[in-house]
Amino acid sequence: MFRRACPSRHLIQVTVDAETVNVEAGDTVAAALLALGKDACRTTPVTGSPRGPYCMMGVCFDCLVRIDGKANQQGCMVLVKPGMRIELQHGANALVDVLSAGRVRGTSPGNC
Amino acid sequence: MTDDAFDFAIVGGGLVGLAIAYGLVRGNQRVVILDEGDNALRASRGNFGLVWVQGKGQGLPAYSSWTQLSARLWPEFAQMLRDDTGVDVALEQKGGFQICLSEAEMRVRVDAVRQLMIQPGFETYEIRTLDRHQLQGYYPGIGPGVVGGSYSALDGHLNPLKLFWALHLATQERGAAYRPNAPVTRITRDASRFVLACKESKAVLAQRVVLAAGLDNARLAPMLDMDLPVRPQRGQILVLERLRRFMDRPIVNLRQTDEGTVLIGDSQEEAGLDDRTSTTIAATLADRAVRTFPVLANARVVRTWGALRVMSPDGFPIYDRSRTQPGAFGATCHSGVTLAAAHALALAPRVIAGDLGDMLAPFAPARFQSARRSMEYV
Amino acid sequence: MATQHTFDVAILGAGPAGMSAACSATALGLSTVVLDEQHSPGGQIYRAIETSPLTDRSILGKDYWHGASLVDNFARSGAIYEPRTTIWGLTPPQADSHWQIGVSRDGAASFVDARHVVLATGAQERPMPIPGWTLPGVLGAGAAQILLKSSGLVPSGRVVVAGSGPLLFLLITQLARAGARIARVLDTTPRGRLRTTLRHWGAFALSPYAAKGLRLALEACAKAKFERHVDAIEAAGSTHLEAVRYRTGGRERSVAADTLLLHQGIVPNINLAAAAGCTVQWDAQQASFRPRVDAFGASSIYGLSIAGDAAGIGGARMAEAQGRLAAFHAAYVLGRLNAAEFKQRTQEAKRELAHWSRGRAFVDAMYCPSGTFTIPDDRTIICRCEEVTAGAVRKAIRMGCQGPNQLKSFLRCGMGLCQGRFCGLTVNALFAHERNIVPEQVGYYRLRFPIKPLTLGELAALPQTLQSVQAVVRLPASYTVPAAS
Q: What is the pLDDT of residue C94?
């Protein structure tokens, strides 16, 4: 949990998991999430355990979030922008469905 | 025999040495594995993880048969490793693809398959040629530049790092001694035993020796009056971040591991012992992967890797026993994953028997003295 | 490939070393580019110095605001400044080319060419693996400082700070001045350090750090409840930090907590230097690896200098002096200074360096991390990315695993997105401890490019060569490619 030690200067609106929220302009995405009380931003692809920002300087890769549709962005390295879509992540990065649709399940080319 | 003499000393703790060692300990042999240190040139760390049959054996049909045998043995072998270690190597043999990105590549591919199959003595199987439309049935996400490809039901893949780990666990579990940081400097014979002098550690005594030292086989083989002429060939790999499972069959140069990471290969360069990576090769690999699946452009590359394949003059494995030093064997190949099952379950019993038999006769290095055969084209 | 402009000097990092190198280089007429991953200059030490919302200067203190003049000079230096630029590659000159720096900016990768490179990539916090350190609510102390500097954020609720080192005292005082209430400080400095560091006292007392250090320590102690000689810490909670358990003097305690800030010193950021092929060596005094450099910062590769904490921890003021030395050295090898001019200019910088290096030995010895927190127990996750425990690593070591690189193959330890930055030193310590050998003998991960991830699309857009295509496509020589229709 974090709180601001100085008066807010300029608020902008972004969405976090589709909910519209006010965040401070000039904050990184990770800082904005911490200020909103969200200190977990993803679950890990290995065991699904929750994680939040750890180093805030681009080293640990724990603050990964989806930003404007792009997964696995380092939240601590990206500044918030008006209208930005921020989504918390669950597990491994899923690319778009076009590939998932390409899964071959139980059929082989021989059966086509 | 003294207490500290082993039945077998395996020189090399890579996939080839470990698989043979595993077969030997399963055959109740007392085995010691002599390995190098942390910074050794290890093809086993750079493996792509294919259990691949498709296209192999142009110029040496026996290689296809040997590969097919290994592919057939793999399910049993994977089960053995799981039983011994609890490690699941994530073997999947549900077929695999090769994809062509130009008409030229497609024509070469079709021609190569035809040439392969018409060889006398070739153990045939189906390699189905697919046009773009057919390929799209399996992978709707292929890019507009994909012309077609080929498919074989015999192909598969596994997690090569888990295999590496499982073989270490399994050999030791079954009593093999593992000596890391013990590069073999000299091998001599003392009465009935081989004496393997190691750098910075005690010499090892063994009744018999198997050279499975990868590139170092070229240096060691003459000490046992054998010829294992191998050279390094660099391969580079790109590794993508873990992605949710999107493909369940490998493409020969693009596969998703059971852990979700995606491996992209493969390059072949004659670069001596330089195992570094280069941005130009990385760019070419990336470009072809993106042309295969455009959506991968958004996935992130977390690592590049360069490793040295162990190549014989014709690209095929070499298996041999020394004529003048009974009990000395040599094994070398660049398909340590595909052939691991055969090495453990077919080669190791022959080594125990002391005779490699008819099936492995075509892999003797004597072939290099006869006609030069064409390079393998996969 | 088509090459763009070639700079005389490319400086990687815009912290104190990078900024001062840039000022000196441009003053000597060298065309200079400064590439930095952050949004504004300052590095981590002077992070957000131009934009910090903290108007009360007493919160961050005088030393922080010293950075303002540096940033000011840098802004006026004439160096080309490229913020938000992630560096992922660094290739030494080939036969007919210059240094090639692989960068990624706004989602596109490209190369920057330079005749000389000054690497000023600074430091990161030393990993402090304890059970539960992956729980949300547990952060590096450096992270809290960055949040304070750049956003004016302070941890609220029950805050526990744990670890040791001068930066810990600094953070405690800064947070307290900004209004944070710190429930407990768990000082992990082992008992008896004052005695074992006796021989360094004299130099420290005369150093520019002594008075300030003492003042900070006293202020910190007045602001928070300290537990001394803590030799075990565990973060407890299911999905979030709930409590911190610790042990001191053989007694186990527990304190409810919402935020736990960990810190046990900082270590050089070696990934870029190591991946470029620089000789990296173990520094026993600082218990970390660092690239080998000479008195002017020249690395083992010609044309590559390393300045500031990236070459060994010395702090911001030493970094400034080292940045100047590296720039003079670059100017000398590029023929912009002759031997006499070089000598004359470097003398002043060397005096400055000597001044600010006084007392470092005491700090290194006093706050060298204790084994308890570098050699964690079996259940502790040491590789945060791949979630590998110390127990799994020990098992592999006991099976004969030779070192960190074989370990990567066996357990994926160090193979995640952070590329070993948060497990490399722990893995090294575990090997050294299990084998009873020195860290130098253990070695480190082999690091390769990209040192930070970039997208496959970015990589695919980079130049290829005929050789690279042939190495991958391999159409038989006999086959002639038909002309495109």
A: 87
Per-residue exposure over B272-295, b if at least 16 CB sit within 10 Å of its own CB, e if not: eeebebbbbbbbbbbbbbbbbbbb
User: Of all residues in chain B, what percent carry a pLDDT higher than 90?
Assistant: 89
| Chain A residues within an 8 Å CB radius of C386 | 46
In the chain, the amino acid numbered B203 is A
Residues 386-415 of C with CB under 8 A from B: 399-406, 408-412, 415
Per-residue model confidence (pLDDT) at position C479: 53
> Token match 């993508």: residue?
B240
Overall pTM surpassing 0.90 (yes/no) = yes
CATH fold group of domain C375-442: Arc Repressor Mutant, subunit A (1.10.10)
ω before B84 within 30° of 0 (cis)? Answer: no
Task: Enumerate residues 444 to 483 of chain C having a beta carbon within 8 A of any beta carbon in chain A.
Answer: 452
Q: Cβ(C144)–Cβ(C170) under 8 Å?
A: no
> Which residue, among B231, B261, B246, has the nearest Cα to B142 in the 3D structure?
B246
Which amino acid type is present at position B68? Q
What tokens does C206 get?
Answer: 């005369």
Interface test with B, best of A61, A99, A103, A111 (most B CBs within 10 A): A99
Neighbors of chain C by Cβ distance (3+ pairs < 8 Å)? A, B
A98 interface with B at CB cutoff 8 Å? yes
The answer to whether the CB of C92 falls within 8 A of the CB of C275 is: no
- Tell me which residue in B35, B36, B161 faces C409 most closely, judged by beta carbons: B161
Residue in chain B closest to C90 (alpha carbons) equals B279
**Whether the Cβ atoms of residue C420 and residue C270 lie closer than 8 Å to each other:** no
Interface touch A2/C156, C-beta < 8 Å: yes
Assigned CATH for C6-124+267-337: 3.50.50.60
Torsion of CA C259, C264, C266, C268, to 10 degrees: -120
What pLDDT score does A95 carry? 72
Options 2.60.40.1930, 3.30.1850.10, 3.40.47.10, 3.50.50.60; which CATH number does C127-264 get?
A: 3.50.50.60
Average pLDDT of chain C, as a whole number: 94
- Reported as a single tens digit per residue, the pLDDT across B308-323 is 999 999 999 999 999 9
CATH 3.50.50.60 in chain C is located at 6-124+267-337, 127-264
Q: What are the structural domains, with CATH classification, of chain A?
A: 11-104 (3.10.20.440)
Determine, for residues C412 and B161 on separate chains, whether the beta-carbon distance falls below 8 Å.
Answer: yes
Cβ–Cβ pairs < 8 A, chains A and C: 119
The reply to whether residue C136 touches residue A52, judged by beta carbons under 8 angstroms, is: yes
Contacts of B239 in chain A (CB under 8 A): none
**Mind telling me how many Å the CA of A99 is from chain C's nearest CA?**
16
Residues with Cβ within 8 Å of C146's Cβ and at least 6 positions away in sequence, in order, are A56, A57, C44, C47, C48
Q: Look at residue A97 in the predicted model and tell me its pLDDT.
A: 45
- Is the minimum CB–CB distance between A44 and chain B shorter than 8 Å? no
Sign for the CA dihedral angle at C216, C217, C220, C221 comes to negative
